[in-house]
């Protein structure tokens, strides 16, 4: 599980410029809490939208 977390955090850090600060913190928190699958799904949904600061 630790390797999964490390892999996800590397992927998240690579995509950090495409996320708002709140999105980044939320996804990092989900992964740290153990919900790596949910965090990956959330990251893909956010990146699919393609708009950084849309509300």
Question: What are the key terms here?
Answer:
55 residues, mainly alpha, 3 helices, 71% helix, globular
Structure write-up:
With 55 residues, this protein is mainly α. It has one domain (2-49). 71% of the residues lie in helices and 0% in strands. It has helices at 2-14, 21-32, 36-49. The longest helix is centred in the C-terminal third of the chain and has 14 residues, at 36-49. The radius of gyration is 11 Å and the shape is globular. The model has no long low-confidence stretch (mean pLDDT 91).
Short description:
By secondary structure, the chain is mostly helical. It has helices at 2-14, 21-32, 36-49.
Secondary structure layout plus pairing:
Blueprint (H helix, E strand, L loop, with lengths): L1 H13 L6 H12 L3 H14 L6
Number of domains: 1
Mean pLDDT: 91
Order of helices and strands: HHH
Shape: globular
- Number of helical segments with 4 or more residues: 3
């Amino acid at each position: 599980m630790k390797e999964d977390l490390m892999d996800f955090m590397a992927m998240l850090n690579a995509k950090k410029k495409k996320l708002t600060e709140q999105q980044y913190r939320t996804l990092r928190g989900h992964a740290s809490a153990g919900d790596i699958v949910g965090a990956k799904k959330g990251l893909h949904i956010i990146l699919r939208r393609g708009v950084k600061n849309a509300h």
